[in-house]
Amino acid sequence: MTAATKTATALSLESVTLTFPDGDRRLTALDEVSLAVAPGELVAVVGPSGSGKSSLLAVASVLLRPDAGRVVLAGRDTAGMPDRERTRLRREQVGIVFQQSNLLPSLTAVEQLLAVEHLRGGSVRGARARAEELLESVGLGEAGRRRRPHRLSGGERQRVNIARALFTGPSVLLVDEPTSALDHERGEQVVELLAGVTRRHRTATVLVTHDRGLLGRADRVLTMRDGRLG
Ligand SMILES: Nc1ncnc2c1ncn2[C@@H]1O[C@H](COP(=O)(O)OP(=O)(O)OP(=O)(O)O)[C@@H](O)[C@H]1O
């Protein structure tokens, strides 16, 4: 790999294989998967249930170690990295948006982001302006920013999730079925938003979805089938 291609890749999976125990055999969830995503690029991954999409995100987020192959995140080869360092790298470099909103029920939208800063041991006071700005940029107005999750719509909750995932300034954004709880129009708006933040924040974004109707905004669409990516 040349220096130029290295700097142009924020996330790279090289011949990654992941297996799970399955009785006295092993089930292959990822079968020599290779993928490189550049900063500012939105890659969509589609595929049937059980084809390995969530496994792909778990390996890309360095949550799971592959059986074979390498994951290079923000220029760091994670293969031989101790767990503690992998966790730190994930916290700093990876933003994750899950299918369902997993916001804390007792916190307002702004506080959801400040909680991230608190957990990192940072200054909550110093982070407030940035949290407000980020929520504004994903389309959450002044009133919405003061609401707890049960008083936000599904689309608004996903916007808060996206803002929270971006809060640490990650180089990689991993998004798992962000529209599954939304109607088509709101789903489209969320994908539009993800395309926008990918450009503005220069994240290498991987979006897993069942919904082929949402793929128009992706730079590339890849299909996962039986653990293989093509
Ligand atoms: N923790 C686990 N233990 C054992 N097998 C697992 C585990 N997680 C996933 N698998 C298996 O690995 C394969 C890939 O699963 P994965 O969840 O990655 O698929 P998926 O494409 O995300 O599916 P869905 O669209 O239904 O979420 C499946 O056969 C699944 O049963």
Output the CATH topology: Rossmann fold
CATH architecture: 3-Layer(aba) Sandwich
Global geometry = globular
What is the beta-strand fraction?
25-35%
Topology of this structure?
Elements: H1 3-7, E1 11-22, E2 25-37, E3 42-46, H2 53-60, E4 68-73, E5 76-77, H3 83-93, E6 94-97, H4 109-119, H5 124-137, H6 142-145, H7 154-166, E7 172-176, H8 184-201, E8 204-208, E9 220-225, E10 228-229
Parallel strand pairs: 3-8, 3-9, 6-7, 7-8
Antiparallel strand pairs: 1-2, 1-4, 4-5, 9-10
The structure holds adenosine-5'-triphosphate.
Give a quick rundown of the structure.
One of its GO terms (molecular function) is ATP binding. The chain is built from 8 helices and 10 strands.
How would you describe what is shown here?
This is Putative ABC transport system ATP-binding protein. Keywords: ATP-binding, Nucleotide-binding, Transport. It comes from Streptomyces olivoverticillatus. This protein has about 230 residues and is α/β, with parallel strands linked by helices. It has one domain: P-loop containing nucleotide triphosphate hydrolases (Rossmann fold). It is built from 8 helices and 10 strands. The strands form 2 sheets. A 6-stranded mixed sheet has the order 6-7-8-3-9-10, sandwiched between helices. A 4-stranded antiparallel sheet has the order 2-1-4-5. The longest helix has 18 residues, at about 185-200. The site of adenosine-5'-triphosphate has 11 residues, from β2 and α2.
